[in-house]
Design a protein that fits this description.
Pfam families: Pyridox_oxase_2. By secondary structure, the chain is α+β, with helices and mostly antiparallel strands. It contains four helices and nine strands; from the N terminus they run αββββαββααβββ.
């Protein structure tokens, strides 16, 4: 991550993440992309960290739909919901591939690495053939392993507090100035 100033919305996000504790679901984000028919496609992915002060990392398979969508349209939106803090973050951004990705591969557990050696994502399972098993960490990173960076340019936070919800927006072009808006 760069040494640039961390946007104030990251403090709000950090606070929400702390309230979630160590729940695995606290790292699940919903990623929406646009396919070549201009239709939105939504799926849950795992938040893998920050590349810069305002860009999110996710890992994917080069054979996945989200990677093919990137070839057509780089627009993406991420929704990150935190139940305990009743906070919903929406991030608009541009998605691109991170070419230097070996350090991310090396950070994965063996069981996580094994998923990149499975058959094509989205294809029907053929129960007549042996299914992939765990792999050794001695295997080299497959070409299919892709790291995606989502460069955020807009943040929308909805706090589901009572009696009246609160909503805030930040935009990169406005130097991440916090603006309260009607929910």
């Amino acid at each position: 991550m760069t040494e640039n100033k961390i946007p104030i919305w990251r403090q709000e996000l950090k606070s929400a993440r702390i309230k979630e504790g160590k729940l695995p679901s606290s790292r699940w984000i919903q990623l929406c992309t646009v396919n070549n028919n201009n239709e939105p496609r939504l799926r849950t992915v795992v938040f893998r960290g920050w590349k810069t002060e305002s860009s999110i990392l996710v890992f994917t398979d080069q054979l996945s739909e989200k990677f093919s969508h990137l070839q057509f349209n780089s627009n993406a939106e991420v929704l990150w919901l935190f139940f305990r803090s009743k906070s919903q973050f929406r991030f608009k951004g541009k998605m691109k591939e991170v070419k230097e990705n070996i350090k991310y591969w090396d950070s994965l557990s063996d069981s996580a690495k094994s998923t990149w050696f499975w058959p094509h994502p989205g294809k029907e399972i053929d129960h007549k053939i042996q299914q992939p098993q765990m792999i050794s960490n001695n295997l080299n990173k497959p070409e299919r392993f892709v790291v995606l960076e989502i460069e955020i340019y807009s943040v929308d936070l909805l706090k589901l507090v009572k009696p009246i919800h609160k909503r805030y927006v930040w935009n990169k072009e406005d130097n991440w100035k916090k603006i309260e808006i009607y929910p």
